[in-house]
Automatic annotation (TrEMBL):
This is UDP-N-acetylglucosamine 1-carboxyvinyltransferase. The keyword Oxidoreductase does not apply. Keywords: Cell cycle, Cell division, Cell shape, Cell wall biogenesis/degradation, Cytoplasm, Peptidoglycan synthesis, Transferase. Residues 7-425 form the Enolpyruvate transferase domain. The active site is at D121 (proton donor).
Amino acid sequence: MGTFRIEGGHQLHGEITPQGAKNEALQILCAVLLSGEKITINNIPDIIDVNKLIALLEDLGVKIQKKGKGSYTFKANDVNLEYLQSDQFKQDGRGLRGSIMLVGPLLARFGKGYIPKPGGDKIGRRRLDTHFEGFIKLGAKFRYNKEEYFYGVEAEKLKGTYMLLDEASVTGTANIVMAAVLAEGTTTIYNAACEPYLQQLCKMLNRMGAKISGIGSNLLTIEGVDTLGGTEHTMLPDMIEIGSWVGLAAMTKSELTIKNVSWDDLGQIPNAFQKLGIKLERKGDDIYIPKHENGYEVQNYIDGSILTIADAPWPGLTPDLLSILLVVAIQAKGEVVIHQKMFESRLFFVDKLIDMGAKIILCDPHRATVIGHDFKSTLKATTMVSPDIRAGVSLLIAALSAKGTSTINNIEQIDRGYENIDERLRAIGANIVRV
């Protein structure tokens, strides 16, 4: 189990470039199974979860060539479907949440898709019902082996239909879209997720020959086609990493420039930090954060009542950033309620922040009230364990702002979502060592 040792209290300075988007990569990489022609993908992040999925594709028989940093070609013209029933697949697929999105493309192109119950972060229940209910509505037969926790769907030919999703699941929508593009007839998906990464997937599929309309809305219409071709695709920067660097700059009173952020795809994210009083400027496609020498003050509602920041399906605020915003609020002037609606275990890391001296009241599994210090007292260093990707980076930000030397164990959780994070932080002046 790896460890970060962090000496806090240093101001950072310089430029940092966000990696390619992890959540987009997991969708886009699964989509290469929809075609036997060459597909080139750029700006792929070099992180554990993405590399696991690339290895899974290779084991499935996809021909993969690395062209350069973050750039690969994929050709799925000889897929080994027998691998899906192997013990190795049942083991490898279980370790990666994103492996569920292999099912839609496999079902669409080969008439069958299987997956072991995926793992991932321990942040609460994340159902797979939306995925499989969508496949069943397209005409697939579902089966589930309870002893092995092994799911399967099979169909001779999928047929387009109308469906109203029970939740605007991002991965569920992506999976159903990938199945529907090769279905016979027209599929209409209402209450579809519409976040930028899903828009990217739909645009890529259209370049491959799919016929998807309504992109960017919650009503998608998909006219099925017989085959898809090749294409080239460049992924967006990771919006969660961008938010992490904004929070880090504010907490450490640092002057930072975040490069090439794709401003137009950030949605509510800049606004959420501005509600906490953080100043950020748009400079071209970069975000510039000045030194907050005098701190930052929470903007209450216009009637003076306490601010609540909550997550919601896109175009609402992504739940992945709430833990970052919670940590940033620790040094704000004022109070704020952080309401994590979508996952019931994601706030359970706040006890570690309380140990560091934060004033946080965990109201219930979904809500925490933060009473800001206004930099009148600093967090104190401690030893912590990273419970999941986002909480791990939130604890890292807290440690970089704290007085003394902190230790974070189980950093493999952080490595699952952030590329060479220690090297990149050292480049802007952080004192962080990987042990």
